[in-house]
Amino acid sequence: MNIAIIGASGKSGQKIMAEALQRGHTVTAIVRTAGKITDKSVSVLEKDLFDLTAADLAPFDAVVDAFSASPGHEKDHQTSLAHLADILSGNQQTRLLVVGGAGSLYVDEQLTLQVIDTPDFPDAYKPTASNMRDAYLALKTRNDVNWTYFSPSAMFIPDAPRTGSYTLGKDRLLINSAGESTIGYADYATAMVDEIEQGQHIRQRFTAVAR
Questions:
Q1: Could you give the CA distance from residue 35 to residue 194 in angstroms, rounded to a whole number?
Q2: Which end of the chain is less packed: N or C, by CB atoms within 10 Å?
Q3: What is the pLDDT, as a whole number, of residue 88?
Q4: DSSP secondary-structure letter at 44?
Q5: Helix (H/G/I), strand (E/B), else coil: 183
Q6: Torsion, Cα of 25, 11, 157, 181 (10° steps)
Q7: Which pLDDT score is estimated for 73?
Q8: CATH no. for 2-210
Q9: Measuring CA to CA, how many Å separate 170 from each of 18, 184, 188, 202?
Q10: What are phi and psi of 28, to 5 degrees?
Q11: Helix %, strand %, coil % for the chain, to 5?
Q12: Checking phi first, is residue 7 left (phi over 0); if not, alpha (psi -120 to 50) or beta?
């Protein structure tokens, strides 16, 4: 498949890019600084996310949004995702897959209490989590885009080894057999590329936890 990764030089973007390349997909890294991509097998589009156009994304089967807003600019999570949805509106061939947040997952069976609203949720993470939640809620209303929103577990670990094993869920925070809600970036990338290949969550949110 022909896959574009926005933010391919970031921690999650790098892992998703490596997983896609390992499986033989064609990958284009969309980054603001081309020099950050050193793999010569990867095409590079040096462009700011907010400058991307419908024509830029039209050639791809899937566009992975691994954008990460800088501190103080957390609202960019909302505006960036809205921009991507707008330029992909009506495009039935290109999927938009979002590296999302865990804050909007629910912790109860009735789906009334989200992670971000639990008493122990750190205040320092609330600006990011709340803006990611609002971005997701806006995306949920879009029937003109083939979107998929992928929330990680509560603990999203950059350097955890790849196991290739995970359990999927939808809107509830998952806990594994060890009583932990955790997944490494590498296993998250595995699940993301599995979703790109299999298309099981069109216009849906899903989540994954390490087994």
A1: 28
A2: C
A3: 98
A4: E
A5: strand
A6: -60
A7: 97
A8: 3.40.50.720
A9: 25, 18, 14, 12
A10: -115, 125
A11: 35, 25, 45
A12: left
E-strand stretches of the chain: 2-6, 26-31, 43-46, 62-65, 95-99, 147-151, 155-157, 166-169, 182-184, 204-210
CB 181 within 8 A of CB 153: yes
Of 70, 67, 99, nearest to 83 by C-alpha is 67
Can you tell me the distance from the alpha carbon of 3 to that of 150, in angstroms, rounded to the nearest whole number?
Answer: 16
Cβ neighbours, 10 Å, residue 84: 23
Buried-exposed string 43-52: b where 16+ CB fall within 10 A, e elsewhere = ebbeeebeeb
Q: What backbone torsions phi and psi does residue 39 show, to the nearest 5 degrees? A: -75, 115
pLDDT in tens, 144-167: 999 999 999 999 999 999 999 999
Handedness of CA 77, 79, 82, 87 (dihedral sign): negative
3-state secondary structure of 205: strand
Report how far residue 195's alpha carbon sits from residue 61's, in angstroms, rounded to the nearest whole number: 12
Is-above-0.85 flag for pTM? yes
The domain locations on the chain are 2-210
